[in-house]
């Protein structure tokens, strides 16, 4: 059996944002999810139930609902992003333990997200993590081609001059770790801790035993702190 990749050589730490830097059970993404459904419903003039089916179909097929709406229905990204990210961030609470663990990691810390920089800024401010990251690669930098598209990861690596073989990627969706692992990154899947209800599709919680997942954790702060000991 192949041994999972380790961390001693890592000099760049790459983090997804939603459901990765904050716990799944906060269900912040549930708000965004609801806003996406409203946007699809209004734009296509369909029932909420029809909009829900379209939303989830596009999410699976295109990586984000936005990409499907742009490709098939001519939606402007700016309009979509402004609408769906207009949410209440107050459920997020400062996480000094996570901040301390990130600060101790050697090298650069970057965010790679299918969200927008504005959403990243709002989330990091609530978590008290704004000063801990050296850069953000968002859906706009990706030219609206979301993870898990291979060209998006390559564009990220090129833009930030990241050596994939010396980088680690932290994600809540196993499918978004397939390409990073192929490129040589050490991969970590962040999963719910099981103590509270989470609003996720079944497929979003799959993949813990996948060959492209090197490590799994339900406690990101504790996991990172353990790497610095």
UniProtKB/TrEMBL annotation:
| Protein name per the record | HAD family hydrolase
The GO molecular function terms of this record are: hydrolase activity
**Gene3D superfamilies listed in its UniProt record:** 1.10.150.450, HAD superfamily/HAD-like
Q: Which UniProt keywords apply?
A: Hydrolase
Q: Which PANTHER family match?
A: HALOACID DEHALOGENASE-LIKE HYDROLASE
In terms of SUPFAM superfamilies, this protein maps to: HAD-like
Transmembrane stretches, by residue range?
A: none
């Amino acid at each position: 059996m192949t041994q999972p990749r380790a961390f001693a050589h890592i000099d760049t730490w790459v983090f997804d944002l939603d459901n990765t830097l904050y716990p799944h059970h906060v269900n912040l993404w549930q708000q965004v999810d609801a806003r996406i459904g409203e946007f699809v419903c209004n734009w296509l003039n369909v029932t909420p139930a029809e909009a829900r089916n379209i939303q989830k179909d596009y999410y699976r097929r295109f990586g984000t609902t936005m990409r499907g709406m742009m490709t098939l229905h001519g939606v402007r990204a700016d309009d979509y992003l402004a609408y769906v990210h207009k949410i209440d961030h107050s459920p997020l609470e400062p996480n000094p333990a996570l901040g301390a663990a990130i600060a101790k990691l050697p090298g650069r810390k970057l965010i790679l997200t299918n969200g927008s920089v504005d959403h990243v800024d709002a989330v990091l401010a609530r978590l008290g993590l704004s000063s801990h990251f050296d850069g953000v690669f968002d859906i706009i930098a990706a030219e609206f081609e979301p993870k898990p598209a291979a060209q998006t990861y390559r564009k990220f690596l090129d833009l930030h001059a990241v050596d994939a073989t010396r980088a680690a990627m932290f994600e809540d969706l196993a499918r978004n770790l397939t390409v990073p692992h192929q490129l040589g990154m050490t991969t970590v899947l962040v999963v719910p801790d099981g103590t509270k209800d989470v609003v996720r599709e079944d497929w979003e919680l799959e993949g813990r035993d996948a060959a492209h997942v090197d490590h799994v954790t339900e406690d990101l702060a504790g996991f990172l702190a353990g790497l610095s000991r």
